Amino acid sequence: RTSMSLHKVFVYGTLKRGEPNHHWITDTSKGLSRFIGVGKTIKKYPLVIGTKYNIPFVLDSPGQGHNVVGEVYEVDESMLHHLDILEEHPTFYTRETEEIELYAENIRSECWIYLLKKFKPEMLEQQHFADYSSSGDHGLVYAERYQREPSYNYKQDVMP
């Protein structure tokens, strides 16, 4: 019997419970995932909502913004690969390890997080959030892929 490699992934945006892309991380045909708990980044990061499709991004600019609140999942290699496809790692988001404090256990754990490394400097001037919700009082509702114009390249809005 082969041992499966499991990974902890910290999600802060549309993959969280109750958010539009949560089905990506719970689709058992794509691999295993298990909810571990809610936590936050040890380092502060700017979590912004960008593009006309209101996509949440954590900008790779540690020390700015907030300790970002999110959820930790334990996933297998297959699910991690599936999430890499959604997040377009490594060409758009970059998956890196980051220390996350899990609230319930009061422990720190190394988790994968998807960061936007290449972004226009003006993105740092947008409102920074600590905790993302598509239905938040900011009114910036996330547009799912099927709702987007195929010809519109949202990456041009964020990448230099």
UniProtKB/TrEMBL annotation:
Active site: E87
GO CC entries: cytosol
Keywords linked to the UniProt accession: Transferase
Native source organism of the sequence: Cryptotermes secundus
GO molecular function annotations of the record: gamma-glutamylaminecyclotransferase activity; transferase activity
Family: Belongs to the gamma-glutamylcyclotransferase family.
Residue ranges of domain Gamma-glutamylcyclotransferase AIG2-like in the record: 9-131
Domain of life: Eukaryota
PANTHER family: GAMMA-GLUTAMYLAMINECYCLOTRANSFERASE, TROPONIN C-AKIN-1 PROTEIN
Keyword DNA-binding: no
Pfam families hit by this protein: GGACT
UniProt protein name: Gamma-glutamylcyclotransferase family protein
Keyword Transferase attributed: yes
